[in-house]
Amino acid sequence: MPAAKRVRKGRFITFEGGEGAGKSTQVKRLVEALAARKIETVATREPGGSPNAEELRKALLAGLVAPLGPAAEAMIFSAARIDHLDALIKPALARGAYVVCDRFADSTRAYQGALGKLSEDFIDGLERVTVGDAMPDLTFMLDLPAEDGLARAGARRGNGTVDRFEAEKLDFHLALRDAFKTIAARNPQRCVVIDASRSADDVAADVWRAVETRLLGQKASS
Ligand code: TYD
Fold first, then answer.
1. Is the pTM of this model over 0.85?
2. Could you identify the atom of ligand 1 that is nearest to the CA of residue 48?
3. DSSP per-residue letters across 63-114
4. Is the Cβ atom of 48 under 6 angstroms away from ligand 1?
5. For a tag on the chain, would you pick the N or C end, based on fewer CB atoms within 10 A?
6. pLDDT digits (tens, 9 = 90+) for 161-185
7. Which CATH number fits domain 13-216: 4.10.280.10, 3.40.1620.10, 3.20.20.140, 3.40.50.300?
């Protein structure tokens, strides 16, 4: 155990993936499954999740930060993350709740890091000062071909407006998929890649199996 002891009684689970991978559906399904086990669970999302971070979300998704470049964008995503961790995630984990979050630091590494061509040193440093030892216990990478994800996101949106990242070209989304796969390959103890091209029921079943084997019944490391 490192000198700065981790005060975490709960468990922190994140969902990552490209556009239209079905993350929000799976967050909901997992929260329901945990609730059925009478486990206190907090569902949240990034960017956002706390009042201050939701304000930053509006600016980020409207593309107001993009002209400042990927480094500044990564820093604003991280600023929102600091508030989210302090206001919501850390208190929930400290009291023993499960926290299930739609996107987290891996999205900064994939979107701003890999695609914004920021150096790994920059992203590693930012992650260290922003998240520190509050990295997730378990991360699901919902994986599907970029074309399919974009088609799903388009169908979901209907005539609504495209956000800053959906508006990027197909190449961007192909590279994004690789970036998430690379993160998963480097962090096998934390990440589980799930084939998200299947039905929501099949995906939810795989997610639950992993939560049962990796987290439930496992002793908390407080
Ligand atoms: P959102 O509407 O939540 O999209 P999705 O349903 O795909 O999760 O918008 C979040 C967008 O912000 C998404 O395109 C990914 C992007 N993003 C980053 O670029 N960096 C980050 O650190 C995070 C958390 C999200």
1. yes
2. 24
3. TSSGGG-HHHHHHHHHHHHHHHIIIIIHHHHHTT-EEEEES-HHHIIIIIII
4. no
5. N
6. 777 777 778 888 999 999 999 999 9
7. 3.40.50.300
